[in-house]
Specification:
With 44 residues, the protein is mostly helical. It is built from two helices and no strands. The chain is elongated and about 30 Å long. It has one domain. Helix content is 45%, strand content 0%.
Length: 44
């Protein structure tokens, strides 16, 4: 469920209406993209 939430927040923040408020992802970062990598980050 946490993984799904993270994916949703990423999608919402990249939506056009949010662009003025979104200056980029700091953590876990743009380079962390697949589920396995995201789960590793979430388990820290």
């Amino acid at each position: 469920m946490l993984l799904a939430g993270l994916k949703l927040v990423r999608k919402l923040m990249r939506a056009a209406p949010m662009q003025p408020y979104f200056c980029g992802e700091i953590y876990p970062g743009e380079d962390v993209q697949n589920d396995a990598a995201l789960l590793r980050v979430l388990s820290l």
